[in-house]
Every structure is written in structure tokens, then in C-alpha cells.
Amino acid sequence: MKLLNQIALITGGSRGIGRATALLFAREGADIAFCHLEDDTKADETAVEIRALGRRAIHRSLDVADIGASKDFADHVASTFGPIDILFNNAGMNIRKPFEAYTEADFDRIVNVHLKGMFFMAQAVYPAMVARGRGCIINIASQRGLKGAVNSAPYSAAKAGIMGLTRALSWEAAPKGVRVNAIAPGPIETDMTVTMEAADRQAFIDALPVGRFGRPEEIAATALLLAGPEGGFYVGATLSPNGGDVMY
Ligand code: NAI
User: What is the pTM of this model?
Assistant: First the structure.
């Protein structure tokens, strides 16, 4: 087992990429704490599956844009399970509109959930990781942060910011034993992409060299690489499993 007895905090763990990562990490021996926004039935189901794998699971509905709520949960996890080894900073959403239609409230919501939420959740777990001289933080960006996309300007900007945050924090964190990396997935089959218009979705698939959307498990596998024993030389990196959408 690659994560035996480690403690992982996963944001957005009730479904999609977060859920797949929670289950893979549990299969590899980690206890899992996750938060989610409402979505209680799916969160309960995920927790039951984690426990069926023989690992501990706790979860809480909260909004990662609420810094106090995130810090409170991180503290609760540490006092319930013990020190957090891995933060999988994943919770997210999108509001799709043409650039000129975005309101200030739309912009603030997207940036607050993604960039501010990930920044302060990392800050909530970071001091304890530094004190122990070890820790792993994985921030979920997006291929949209690399190449941009129509009808997603604030999302693309926030995701690009997350890659910048990952690199900046790495300069401070790596010498203290904390590795920070990002994953920038291409389009993945989750509730987030189910809401795309059918024509947009097909156009997306047609433009992908691999000819299909990715599966959440394919992103979880990248997270395991970064968090596991083979990931020790990744620092400030952005890995992008994206079906050939962005080749670099
Ligand atoms: P999803 O919609 O299937 O799951 C989102 C998860 O985040 C759920 O657990 C939800 O409860 C939680 N969540 C949403 N807003 C939250 C908030 N304000 N506070 C706390 N929890 C919140 O989405 P998916 O696709 O699994 O997305 C996960 C991450 O991957 C997001 O950051 C997304 O931007 C990113 N991503 C997704 C891609 C895709 O094609 N699905 C592609 C690239 C990146």
C-alpha cells in the first residue's frame, strides 16, 4: 500500500474527481476526511465505500470560499484523525457565460471557490506540515488554465492562478519538506461536464486527439503518483492528463 496510515483531506470528495481520489487513496491505506457543498446523499455513499475498504472516513458540508469553515474543518480532522499528510485541494464549480455577461458576483464566486478557497485551505494545513517537516499538497487546476476556453474566462483565470500559487508556495514549502504540485485535467466525465450543451460536448470530443472525455479514476491515478512514494521529486509541477488537448 502506497499511503498506509496516512491522513488525507480532500475537498469536494462527494463525487467526481474528488470521490475517485478518496476511494483510491483509501484503497492505498489512507484515512479520508472530505468536505463537499451540500450533496449529502452522495457524500454519505462515498464515506460508506471508504469504510468498506477498512479505512476511517469523516465528512462535512461546507463552502470552501468560507475561510473560517475550511480552517475549522482542517482543525477538526487533525484532532480526530491526527496530523494531515495530504491535502487534495479539489472542490470546484463553473459558471459558463460569454465574457461580457459575467457579473462581479459571478467573478467573485468563481475566484473565491477556486483560488481563494485553495489558497486558504492550504494555509490551514501548512503550519502543521512544516512543523512535522513533511506534507503533500495537490491543487486541482485545469487545462483551461493552460489554454483558456470560450465562456469560461473567470474559471480559466482562477485555474491559471492556481498553477502560479502552486509554484510560488513550492519555493517556500519544499525546503521545509512540503511538496506542492498541481494537476490540470482535460475534460473529465463528471457532473461538472454533464451540464454542457450536447453540441458543445461533441465538439469538445471531436477536437480531442484521444476522442473521448477522461474518467475521474485517471486523475486519481495522477494524484496517487504525486502523493505516493514515487512522487518525491515533483515540486511545483503541473501534471496535465488531458487526452492530448494541450501538448507541452
Ligand atoms: P463535480 O461537480 O463532480 O464535483 C465537485 C465537488 O466539489 C463536489 O463534491 C462538490 O460538493 C464540491 N464543491 C463544489 N463547490 C464547492 C464549494 N464551494 N465548497 C465545497 N465543496 C464544493 O466536479 P469535478 O469535475 O469532479 O471537479 C473537481 C475539480 O476538478 C474542480 O476543481 C474542477 O474545476 C476541476 N476540473 C474538472 C474538470 C472536468 O472536466 N470535470 C476538468 C478540469 C478541472
Answer: 0.98
| Enzyme catalytic residues | 155
Domain boundaries, the chain: 7-233
Of the residues 37, 200, 208, which should be mutated to test ligand 1's pocket, given the most ligand atoms within 8 Å of the CB? 37
Under 8 Å between Cβ of 74 and 122: no
Q: Which of 17, 110, 191, 238 to mutate to test the pocket of ligand 1 (most atoms within 8 A of CB)?
A: 17
DSSP code per residue over 48-88: HHHHHTT--EEEEE--TT-HHHHHHHHHHHHHHH-S--EEE
pLDDT digits (tens, 9 = 90+) for 7-41: 999 999 999 999 999 999 999 999 999 999 999 99
Distance CA 89, CA 112 (A): 13
Phi, psi at 205, each rounded to 5°: -65, -45
Just give the CATH number of 7-233. 3.40.50.720
Render pLDDT for 85-143 as a digit per residue (tens, 0 to 9): 999 999 999 999 999 999 999 999 999 999 999 999 999 999 999 999 999 999 999 99
86 and 135 Cβ atoms separated by less than 8 Å: yes
Task: Tell me which residue has cell 480532522.
Answer: 77
Cell numbers 514515487 correspond to what residue? 230
CA distance 192 to 217: 15
- What's the Rg (C-alpha) of the chain? 17
Q: Is the CB of 65 under 6 A from ligand 1?
A: yes
Asked if residue 238 has its Cβ within 6 Å of ligand 1, the reply is no
